[in-house]
Design goal:
InterPro entries: ARM-type_fold (IPR016024), Noc2 (IPR005343). Keywords: Nucleus. The protein is built from 29 helices and two strands. The chain is an all-alpha fold. It is elongated, with a radius of gyration of 40 Å.
């Protein structure tokens, strides 16, 4: 049947009698159009007869009997679970309606299915308001205004989880929703609601709103785990937030990931581990003081995920360590820059950090322990790949990983040679070519530039790191029964360094460390002389070492005290750096005395003092590096006039803060030209 264009909404509801009257009126007002309809569409004029025979002609198989669907009365996502007995009243959502629904959701007696489906449809209408254009999708409800929109979202976030628990009878924690009696009835609305919730989560950028929605999703995680497609969609979004969100958002996203994965561990764990590891590697490519906390959080949370099932984790960890070993082998064999860069980068080093931390955390369980040896071999050969001065920072990072793994896994790893080699392979007596006020920080770099190698801060930082790592490792091994034998070669090489090095600051620190190491060795020898069991009795040796560790050793006591002081100094250093930006010397206009003004006008050759000192005996800094008390007289008048103009300009433009105190450390090896 040919359709006529709709003229108005009221024509859809005309009965046959009204239709006939309209046709009679049309015949009188426009006879030409009526004749055209009579010739081309007789069915339209016989409207009443067709409508009476409509029921008897159904299913006859003719072309005119093809059914054409009318306009949708609701969202297609919800059409599968509509209950005729629970259909809500269509129309515009008001605050009064929301208050009524909220009261029904909070009912202590029983929550009706009709209420839950109505609330979920209202939530869907609210989502359509912000995700689609007006009129693009038909819905049972229409949400207009920000107050109504916020009220709908707030109602669902605050009251829907408890209402669902009441309806399903899940007041007991830990009950599987799929085993509940009424789960099949609420299954369709839940899918639609969770899909809309993920859309809302993907479109929000505010940290506060994300926090609220993630807490709500954490409550709904038990339902998310019931649907495979929804679970994968939510995990994909949550992993993105886990890797790139604000601190609170990251933590909440990880808690949601952990809960969803635990509820569906057999089917989701492998996918989650792979996705999270690839995301971790992708986001640790660049390291800075601002990104370190996020990278550390991702690493620790990823360790938590791998410990859920060590049998499944073994396959992944073995595969990823093997990939690292393949990259390292290619770099050793091919010896090209691009192959070395595949190893000497932050993604490779942070992967080593991750697997060492995981193996250390699972030291008491046997599943992953066979991977300790291959990982140690990868780390040690990474140090040996390019053992030059430029890659000392990377060496120190690798040594830190080995020390932590040795301590947590209670496994001996020969680390001392990698540290003592630094003392013997570099000439610390060599004079520096550049002076830097700021010391080098190796925490966020792997490779040093040639200009940094020429600075005075390079040698200072290297000695500091060698001292700290030697002290940490020897303190960790200080209770070992073989400690006097472990440190023999290291002690010999440190003594050789002390004979060769002429820098007192370096020799003083390492001599102090050497004394503590030798004192600890003598302590272990005295304690070892008292034992009566055989060295082959591993159980007795372990018990003896545990008792010595509990009693305390001279080196461990010294390390504990040093560690406390070092942490305090690091905090002070950070805060001082922050304060330094605010407390740098302020240059204000200099107020010259009358005598000084006469002196300047009388003698143009005299230098202006930029950094006045409280004491006349202290050195003064002039405009030029080699300025003397009185500059030589110019040879011609042009130079004299030019210098006079510069001096006047300096007097006008330069201000000196009289309240700034002299700080010799601030201006050490510093000249006015550098300023």
């Amino acid at each position: 049947m040919v359709k006529v264009a709709e003229q108005s909404d009221s024509e859809e509801e005309l009965n046959p009698e009204t239709h006939k009257k309209s046709l009679e009126k049309l015949k009188k007002t426009d006879p030409d159009f009526y004749n055209f309809l009579e010739e081309n569409d007789e069915n339209l004029l016989n409207f009443g007869d067709d409508s009476e025979d409509e029921g008897s002609g159904a299913g006859s198989g003719g072309e005119d009997d093809v059914h054409e669907p009318g306009p949708l009365q609701g969202d297609s996502d919800e059409s599968d679970y509509e209950d005729d007995s629970a259909k809500p009243t269509q129309g515009k959502v008001t605050l009064k309606m929301i208050a009524e629904w909220q009261a029904e959701l909070q009912s202590e007696v029983k929550v009706k299915l009709a209420t839950l489906t109505t609330v979920i449809k209202a939530f869907n209408a609210a989502m359509l308001r912000v995700t689609t254009e007006d009129g693009a999708v038909a819905a049972d409800f229409k949400v207009e205004g920000s107050s109504v929109f916020n009220a709908v979202i707030q109602m669902c976030v605050l009251y829907l989880p408890n209402a669902l628990k009441k309806y399903l009878g899940m007041e007991q924690s830990g009950k599987d929703p799929q085993k509940c009696k009424h789960f099949k009835k609420i299954k369709g609305p839940l899918i639609a609601y969770l899909s809309d919730l993920l859309k809302l989560l993907g479109g929000v950028t505010s940290t506060n709103i994300l926090t609220v929605l993630l807490k709500h999703l954490h409550q709904m995680s038990v339902y998310v785990a019931c649907f495979g497609r929804i679970s994968k969609q939510s995990l994909k979004r949550l992993i993105t937030l886990w890797s790139s969100g604000e601190e609170t958002v990251r933590v909440l996203a990880f808690l949601c990931i952990l809960r969803i994965t635990r509820n569906q561990q057999t089917s989701l764990l492998e996918l989650v581990l792979k996705a999270m590891y690839l995301t971790y590697v992708k986001n640790c490519k660049f390291v800075s003081p601002s990104t370190w906390p996020g990278i550390n959080f991702m690493r620790r949370s990823l360790v938590e995920m791998f410990t859920l099932d060590l049998n499944i984790s073994y396959q992944h960890v073995f595969l990823y360590i093997r990939q690292l070993a393949i990259h390292l082998r290619n770099a050793i064999v091919v010896q090209k820059l691009e192959n070395r860069q595949a190893v000497y980068n932050w993604q490779f080093v942070n992967s080593l950090h991750l697997w060492a931390e995981l193996l250390g955390a699972t030291a008491g369980r046997p599943q992953l322990q066979p991977l300790v040896y291959p990982l140690v071999m990868v780390i040690t050969n990474t140090i040996r790949l390019v053992p030059t001065h430029q890659y000392y920072p990377l060496r120190f990072h690798c040594v830190e990983i080995l020390i932590k793994l040795s301590k947590e896994a209670n496994t001996f790893i020969p680390i001392l040679p990698h540290l003592v080699e630094v003392l013997t392979s570099y000439d610390f007596n060599k004079r520096h070519k550049k002076v830097s006020m700021k010391p080098l920080d190796f925490s966020c770099i792997l490779r040093l530039a040639k200009s940094q190698l020429a600075e005075n801060g390079f040698k200072d930082s290297v000695i500091e790191r060698v001292y700290a790592l030697l002290l940490e490792y020897t303190a960790n091994e200080s209770s070992s029964i073989a400690f006097p034998d472990l440190i023999i070669l290291a002690v010999i090489q440190i003594k050789q360094f002390l004979k060769v090095c002429t820098v007192s600051n370096y020799t003083k620190k390492l001599r102090q460390l050497l004394e503590k190491i030798e004192e600890n060795a003598k302590f272990i020898e005295r304690e070892r002389a008292k034992i009566s069991f055989a060295l082959s009795d591993t159980k007795m040796i372990a018990a003896w070492e545990a008792s010595v560790r509990t009693k305390g050793t001279p080196l461990s006591t010294f390390y504990d005290n040093w560690s406390k002081i070092n942490k305090i100094q690091k905090r002070k250093k950070i805060t001082k750096n922050d304060e330094m930006a605010d407390d740098l010397p302020m240059i204000k206009r200099q107020k010259l005395s009358e005598k000084a003004e006469k002196k300047v006008s009388r003698n143009e050759q005299e230098q202006l003092e930029l950094f006045p000192s409280d004491s006349e005996d202290e050195p003064k800094f002039g405009l030029e590096d080699d300025a003397e008390d009185e500059a030589p007289k110019p040879k011609n008048d042009k130079k004299k006039k030019l210098k006079k103009k510069k001096a006047k300009a300096a007097v006008q433009d330069i201000e000196i803060d009289d309240n700034v105190k002299d700080e010799p450390d601030m201006v050490q090896d510093f000249s006015a030209a550098d300023w």
